[in-house]
Structure formats: C-alpha cells, structure tokens
Amino acid sequence: MSVRVPIYLDHQATTPCDPRVVEAMRPFWSEEFGNAASKTHALGWKAEQAVEDGRGRLAELIGADPREIIFTSGATESNNLAILGLARANRDRGRHVVSLETEHRSVLDPCRALEREGFRVTLLPVGNNGILDLDRLRDALDDETVLISILHANNEIGVIQPLAEIGEIARARRIPVHTDAAQSAGKLEIDVRTLGVDLLSFTAHKLYGPKGIGALWLRRGSPRLRLEPILHGGGHERGLRSGTLPVPLCVGFGRACELAGELRTEDARREAQLAERLWKRLSTELEAVELNGDAVHRLPGNLNISFLGVEGEALLIALPKLALSAGSACTSASREPSHVLRALGIGETRALCSLRFGFGRSTSEAEIDLAADLLIEQVTRLRALSPVWERAKRGGDGP
Ligand SMILES: Cc1ncc(COP(=O)(O)O)c(C=O)c1O
Asked: How far is CA 206 from CA 73, 183, 260, 304, in A?
C-alpha cells in the first residue's frame, strides 16, 4: 500500500480541515457574506442564522445550552478570557488563582499577567505520571481563591486530569473551575453538566475545523459567574467578546463539532490501536525507549516517547518523511527542554530526547508501520554515532 509523505503525526499541533467542513463553509465567503450583527436585511439574518446553527452544534458536542457558548479566535483567547476575565471581575472577593505546572502557555502566561496585577498564583506540581495529586489541590485553596484552572488533556503527553474530583473539591468551597479542553474536545466524551467545571475552552483546528476560531463555554445559572471582557467594542457575544463574528468559521466549527460527535468513538478506538501498534514495535525492537506520562489516563491519539541517547531535534532532521514534533508546536523552536516533561521529574537530557506522536482520523496502519521502520533505523544509526548514548546506557542522566 502506498503511503503519502510526509506522514503526518502531529495532530496535537493541528488537524487538517475535513473536506465536509470546507464544503459547509464555502457559501459564506462570497455569496452569503452578510454581517451576523446586521439586523435590517436578509443577508444579515441569514448570517445570524448560520452562526446560531453553528453555536447549537458546538453546544451539542459538549452537552451545553447554546446561550452558554461565546465564540473567540481560538483556545488561546478563550483561556485568556476565562482566566483574566474571571479573576479581574472577582478581585473584590480574593486575589488567588490556582493552576498546574503542566498547563499550556496560553494559561500560564495570563496567570503571570495576573501576578503583575497583584494576584497570587499557585502552580500545582504533578506526579511522575503527569496527574495532579488532589491533596495538593485541597491544601492550596484558601479563602482568597477565586479561580482554579486545570487543563483537561495535556498537549504534549496527552495525560487526562481528574476533573470530576477537582470539581467536587472546588464546589465544596464555591470556587469556579476553568478547564482548557483544546486537546480533548471532540476526542473524549464531554458533558459539561457532569464534567465538574464551570468554564471550558476549546478550538476548531484541533478537531478538523478551521484555524482562527474557538469558543468559551460559560456555565449559566447559580451561583452566577462574573466575567469581565478583555476585548471592548460593539458588544457582540453578550458583551463578553466584541468583534464581528467570522461567519464562515462559525459554520465550519459547527460542522466539525457535528462530525466529531458522529465519529469520535470510532476515531478514538482506531487511534488507540495505532498508538499500541507503534509503541509495541518501538518498545520491542529498540532498547531504552520510555513512555512519558500516564499509560492509561491519556488521549487515545497521543504517545510521548524518549529515545535515550538520541536528541529529539537530531532525530527529526534524520526523518524528513515524518511530520512530528519534539515538543509542543509553540515551544519546540526554542530547544529548551519541555516544561511539561521537566514537571514529571524527567531529567534534562531525557527530556531533550523525546518526541510527541499525534495520530488522527486519517492515520493508517501502513503509515504507522513505515514510521516505525524509519524510527528504528534512524535511532539505531544515531545511537551508533553518539557518545551520549554510551553515557546514557551507563545510567549517567538519572530519570
Ligand atoms: C492545550 C492547548 N491549549 C491551548 C492551545 C491554543 O489553541 P489555539 O491555537 O486555538 O489558540 C493549544 C494549541 O496549541 C493547546 O494544545
């Protein structure tokens, strides 16, 4: 069977836009081009209807009420809106925010911005498996805590946090919980009524939708959540996110959510099988390969593997037929060891010897088999050339 190269194994960075999504968006670029906020003519009404249909599909995927969905430009903006918006609106109640060391930069950086505004931020550590210890969370909360932000599934190691238990602890103290679900929405089953959180960020381009659109789910009902907008202007999205809505993207995001609802279970089953297939070959045909992050509580389509003695970047250069990443897309350019792997207690050298594999809807067994052949060949070749490998074999780098 022929395989198209490069073989795309970077689905945590982004996913291809599904052709059915592209088709759904098509009329809204130049035929149905109205502004959804134009209330005085049919082009505006049609645009508004298309946006609301899209919103309904997003809501359905996560078990929400459409009125709880705020369109944004992506998960980065949703995370900023949730964290800055909620903390600032509640600063009279307290100035303490709790999050996790292994969060995405779009959570960590708004937390840092809050510190500059006089908030205290506690970043909780994780265990060697990447999972939060709930006792550490309990101990961190105090009367000043106004927000807990804990990501659902990690973008580098795929590890899933116990949101239901986190939500229970938070509810007992009436502290709202936000989760960054950029990696899990459309992949794991999500029902916001039982997930245990109050706000949830997600984004279209990780679930076969277009880039440039995301959403924040904001629970309605009591106790009422107070949120301050970070963008000011025409008062769109119930005053919480001003700016003309990108109608084609709203439609595409909606269609992508609809497809995710239909295909999620089968996608997850296949991706888990592909991950198992690759891991089996690498771990039996190569020595000294380590899986990073919990082996069970992880996204079905993710593997993060250390190839001891071989620098991840060097391995990528030796593998032009594979498209994958040595870290998250935003930090992999820096050649710094990943903060996520370091938080798991992994040594600097091993962290730099790691690759992230992300499988998706179109990944085939033939692609996995070819990827395994190439990886085994190149890891073996590079190790034969590497003095670091000799040292690592003798146990020089710790964990
Ligand atoms: C966990 C996580 N949060 C947030 C983001 C940012 O999403 P977006 O690209 O939609 O801004 C990403 C994407 O890299 C992610 O993986």
From this structure: 13, 7, 11, 18
35-69 pLDDT per residue, tens: 999 999 999 999 999 999 999 999 999 999 999 99
How far apart are the CA of 42 and the centre of ligand 1, in A?
36
Strands (E), 101-224: 120-124, 145-149, 177-180, 199-203, 214-218
> Is ligand 1 within 6 A of the CB of residue 198?
no
Domains of the chain: 7-15+264-392 (3.90.1150.10), 19-259 (3.40.640.10)
- CB of 214 closer than 6 A to ligand 1? yes
Pairing outcome for strands 177-180 and 199-203? parallel
Residues 398, 346: contact at Cβ < 8 Å?
no
Q: Is 76 in the pocket of ligand 1 (CB under 6 A)?
A: yes
Which run of H or of E encompasses 40? Answer: none
For the chain, the average pLDDT equals: 95
**Taking Cα atoms as reference points, which of 61, 74, 56, 71 lies closest to residue 14?**
74
Residue 126, pLDDT above cutoff 50: yes
Element housing 7 (H / E): strand 7-8
Average pLDDT in the 105-129 region? 98
* Index of the ligand 1 atom closest to the CA of residue 151: 1
3-state secondary structure of 32: coil
Q: How far is the CA of 75 from the centre of ligand 1 (A)?
A: 5
Tell me the C-alpha distance between 32 and 118, whole Å: 47
What's the gap in Å between 166 CA and the centre of ligand 1? 22
Q: Is the CB of 74 under 6 A from ligand 1?
A: yes
Q: What is the dihedral of CA 80, 86, 87, 91, to 10 degrees?
A: 150
Question: Which helix (H) or strand (E) is 323 found in, with range?
Answer: strand 322-323
